[in-house]
Amino acid sequence: MKRFLIFGLIILGNLVNISAQDKIIAPSPILPANNSSNLNVKIDIDWTSVSGAVSYQLQLDTSASFNSSMDTTIVTTYSAYNINNLMYGTTYYWRVRAKNAANQYSAWSDIWNFSTKELVSLSIPLDSAKHVTVSTAIKWDTISGSIYWIQIDTTASFDSPLLSEFSEITADSVMLNNLLYNQKYFWRVMAYHHYDSANWSLTRLFNTKSHLDITPKFPVDNYTDFIPGDTITAYAIWGSKGGELLLSEDSSFDMPFYYVFDSTDIIITQIQKTPPKYDTTVSVVTDYLKFDQNCYWKMRFFHSSDTSDWSPVYKFTTIDSVKLLAPIDNTTDINPITDSLKWFPIYAATEYLIYYDTLSDLSTAKLVSVDPTDTLYNLDTIIVYNLQNLNLSYNKTYYWQIKAKHPRDEATSEIRSFTTLHDNGVADYNGYSFTILPNPASDFVKINFNREQTGMISIKNILGQDVYKEKINKTLNANIPVYNLDNGIYIIEFSSNDAYFSKKLIVKH
Asked: How many CA within 13 A on the CB side of residue 467?
């Protein structure tokens, strides 16, 4: 009897041991965190993996007792599950248990809950934004697992004939084009999927740019010294397909210059990197405006659906004379070979006239015509005319004036004077002199100084450009190569701290 009792206890112990080995522990929830809110309708649910588990049973419901019609049970072999098409603005409860190879289930995990987003949050434009372009993007924060329906209207009730709608949008933004100028717009976004839709987002509004946003960049209002033929640049309205500029020499615009431009003339320029800042401008080149004239202009923009009102009227005054640059009035020691007359360009000019005379009233002046389109003289920001072309004498005072002409008007500069430097045939200055031999030259030219010199020797062409330069130090003569120079007339110059002299050189191969 005792033997049977011992044998039975051994068998019972083995059964208890086997049962303990087959027992499987419950998983622990990880994500989403308990009581999470404002979650997407497509999320990952994650829990700890369990040793010995061959699958997991995930239970999800809108009721903490897991007995509603929404109760969903999912079986997966992974310790996570991606679930989509959740209801918007809904609280969900979830738990999970593991199953081993013996078809034994663990206990259920703790019950956690989370809530999904109720509606879309709008991003840009900011609410009540002003000065919005007529081509602009509206943007919102996405809800993963959603597509979107967008409404834009000129009324907050979204029931006007101008209502625009976009559906089945999968991106986070929509581009709006051809918006009306100076118009208030309301907009909202709804997220949805095949099984549910969110509430409409909060409604935002924005105001598009108007004619008052068309302002001058150059010239600023009431600007003086505007150059005929210069460019008017105004701040433009992006999204326009073109525009019109009216420019008049009378404030009533009875006989205006009329200019039309298209969208290719409207440009965006970055003017600041941090933070990014941009200018949207349009530029129009003016015509033959009169000199010393008050001018008035206004501008408007258009696209296929609307035209803005005219901008306010802006004013500028054109220059009354040609502005001279060099030589400065009463300058002496002007080199009649290498120096130049310089003045600022008149962009609308079709001809410049140079008047020069030895009499201050220019009563016997000689006249030279200069073509403004000739790049030999027109260096874009300055007009340069070499004095060598005038065959001026040495050691003489000259008076000069510039006239600019175009088909509707002309303007003159002030009268200035200059005196050319002295030349005695061997360039004698402050007791220094030099000769050059041979002249004309083909291979080398030798410069002989009457005193030891330290300074710079240079050869200039008729445009005043250096074609050769050499420093010398305490020397009486120098051999300068000219074999690589083209045939023509050049100027050899020497300059030092206390001396300057020059002579004409002819190169002939």
From this structure: 21
| Mean pLDDT value of segment 110-115 | 98
pLDDT, tens digit (0-9, with 9 covering 90-100), for 166-191: 999 999 999 999 999 999 999 999 99
Residue 15 lies in a domain: no
- The residue out of 208, 227, 248 marking a domain boundary is 208
- Contact of 190 with 197, CB cutoff 8 Å: yes
Joined tokens for residue 89: 């603005």
- Lookup result for tokens 């009486």: 476
pLDDT at residue 423, as a whole number: 66
Q: What is the DSSP string of 433-456?
A: -EEEESSSBSSEEEEEEEEEEEEE
Which pLDDT score is estimated for 139? Answer: 98
Residues sharing a CB contact under 8 Å with residue 145, sequence separation 6 or more, in sequence order: 40, 41, 42, 43, 84, 85, 86, 193
Give the distance, in angstroms, between the CA of residue 41 and the centroid of all CA atoms in the same chain: 40
For residue 279, tell me if it sits in a domain. Answer: yes
CB under 8 A, 24+ apart: contacts of 209-212: 209/131, 209/132, 209/133, 209/134, 209/181, 209/182, 209/237, 210/181, 210/182, 210/308, 210/309, 211/181, 211/182, 211/300, 211/308, 211/309, 211/310, 211/311, 211/312, 212/311, 212/312
Q: Which of 37-51, 197-211, 383-397 has the lowest mean pLDDT?
A: 383-397
Instruction: Report the distance separating Cα 295 and Cα 249, nearest Å.
Output: 4
- Note whether 499 and 455 are within 8 A (CB): yes
Nearest Cα residue to 125 out of 117, 135, 116, 115: 135
Least trusted range by pLDDT, from 131-135, 239-243, 422-426: 422-426
Tell me: do 456 and 488 sit in the same domain. yes
* Mean pLDDT value across residues 266-273: 90
Task: Say how far apart CA 289 and CA 282 lie, in whole Å.
Answer: 20
Quick one: what percent of the chain has pLDDT higher than 90? 77
- Residue 22: the pLDDT is 58
Banded model confidence at residue 433, pLDDT cuts 50, 70, 90:
low
200: domain CATH number is: 2.60.40.10
Q: Which residue pairs, CB below 8 angstroms and at least 24 apart, start in 313-317?
A: 313/251, 314/216, 314/221, 315/221, 315/222, 315/251, 316/219, 316/221, 316/222, 316/223, 316/224, 316/226, 317/222, 317/223, 317/224, 317/225, 317/226, 317/292, 317/293
Which pLDDT score is estimated for 196?
97
Domain limits for position 30: 21-116
Q: How far from each other are the two terminal CA atoms of the chain, in whole angstroms?
A: 142
Residue 256 sits in the same domain as residue 341: no
Final residue belonging to a domain, choices 375, 397, 420: 420
